[in-house]
Amino acid sequence: MDIIFLIIIGGLVGVIVLQHLMLTRRTKLFKNHLNHVALPYFKSQMNPHFIKNLLQTINYFILFDSKENASKYLKKFSVLVDKTLKLADIELISLTDEIEILEHYLELQNLRFPNKFDFIPIASVNTKPTIIVAEDINPLEIKIPPMVVQPFVENALWHGLMH
């Protein structure tokens, strides 16, 4: 009787372990699919919209005879494009890199929408980050997909500044 009970318990434990392994494998496959199919698709949809808005702003500065602003904006845009392209093929980047990209993006938006929101450009604070994370988070250790936060910031600015 004890041996039958042990065999049944062993069989149940085996089934549970097997189910857990299968679930872990499915989760890993799903994450792999997300990183290799869904995320690149999302980024490919977001980047043209992002670039189009920046180019329209440069065009606006040129049309309204603000060559100095157009030049400043174009220089900042080229820095942002350079940083973005360097990180484009990397699956996960540090939160520090993402924050740096966001700060450049916010500098551009600050030029695009003067006096609409407060943001201290990187250059004016001795290259210390303007976006600050909680003390218990090490932004060098946290890894995220590149340009994943930017669409949310862009959306918040657009809907916050639109009216």
Please give the structural blueprint.
Elements: H1 2-63, H2 67-87, E1 93-94, H3 95-112, E2 143-144, H4 150-161
Antiparallel strand pairs: 1-2
Describe this structure in words.
The protein contains four helices and two strands, in the order ααβαβα. Strands 1-2 form a two-stranded antiparallel sheet. It is mainly α. The radius of gyration is 24 Å and the shape is elongated. The model has no long low-confidence stretch (mean pLDDT 77). Helix 1 (2-63) packs antiparallel against helix 2 and helix 2 (67-87) packs antiparallel against helix 3 (95-112). The N and C termini lie far apart (77 Å). Helix content is 69%, strand content 2%.
Give a brief outline of the structure.
This protein is mainly α and 163 residues long. It has helices spanning 2-63, 67-87, 95-112, 150-161; strands at residues 93-94, 143-144. The longest helix is centred in the N-terminal third of the chain and has 62 residues, at 2-63.
